[in-house]
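Supplementary notes for students who missed Thursday's class. We covered one full example, reproduced here. Read the sequence, then the structure, then the short commentary at the end.
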Amino acid sequence: MNTSRTIQKDNPQTIKAWTFYDWANSVYPLIISSAIFPIFYERKTQTELGGVVKFMGMEFINTAFYSYVVALSYIIVAVASPLLSGVADYSGDKKRFLRIFCFLGGISSMALTFFDTSYIGLSMLALLLASVGYWGSLVFYNAYLPEIASEEKQDKVSAKGFAMGYLGSSILLILILVLNKMANFPIKYAFLLVGIWWLGFAQYTLIRMPKGLASTNYIDSPFSKGFKELLKVFTEIKGMIRLKRFLYSYFFYNMGVQTVMIMAVPFAAKEIKGLKDSDLIVSILLIQFLGIAGSFLMSRLSAVIGNLKTLTFVIFLWVLICVLVYFFVYTPLSFYFTAASVGLVMGGIQALSRSTYSKFLPETQDNTSFFSFYDVSEKIGLAIGTVTFGFIEEATGGIRNSVLALISFFVIGFIALVFVPKERK
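Structure (token representation):
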């Protein structure tokens, strides 16, 4: 298949449309993954089920079961994304798959409004599909970055996307809190608003973004192309020392970052004495607004000392934060301090990781395949991270012990990053 279609890089309108999807979909990781739903789930299963979830003849600690469901969603995306990325590269229509996963995530988020512990399997299925929709859409969303932005602008564009996401999701969360306090708005309807916000604002991206670049390599079966390309990418990466070592590091440190995002609220709800639900949500908002500053701060720092040195510094800070959490964070005040620290490093490490990987890619039109490999390795790592977190809690009887796993993830990621060759001059 051959195509002459091109995308103009650094076009302000295209970049605006791209970053707007962060504005649209970031309400899911904030309100459903991090802030409101984890509290809603933990309190509801603790009150109505005694903290023990029974599913398929087995019993699980409620927070451990939650982590297993989220881990399963990562595995589904890891399996599905190579298949679909092959079709996207072949047809040059990333936008179609972005739209499919966007609608899956938005509609499933709205379905959480009907969460019922009497039907825990169906209720958690909605969470599973919402997570698949969110993470699946990011495979195709991230693959646009090297097509729409030149290498020297990718850090800034990536950071702008994360900042837009932090700001937009924070606005909706504040709106939900105001409605809850002023108008006695039932908190379960927050999940309905998440879906409406996500699907509504995503239309700007879905209308304005180009379809994407098509592969110039003709193949008989676009469905098999994804797995063939994944193997091809794996083979190519083995010969790219810098990219290979960066992925080793990313696999581990991002495992820690994403596990923190998913399990921070369940941890605080059980371990921080005297912390009210409103305090938890305020701390998440603190993370959000500091995350905006962190995204741009790390982008500026990387422009001065380089991406790798900046990431090394940030991961070192993550190690310190996790050590402090394990040994010293028991009170609301200490938790607020930790939340502020996490906020500064959360947005920065995510934006910089995405743009660093994009910069390290070779010249290719099969960007979706490379980002599919990136996402597959990421999702496998996230599945391992969340399962490990839940398993340690069940095995030891304490969720605080699971923080030790986070420390090990960041330490391994830090060591691996030290051995990544420096960027080209």
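Commentary. The chain is about 80% helix and 0% strand. The mean pLDDT is 85. If anything here is unclear, bring it to office hours.
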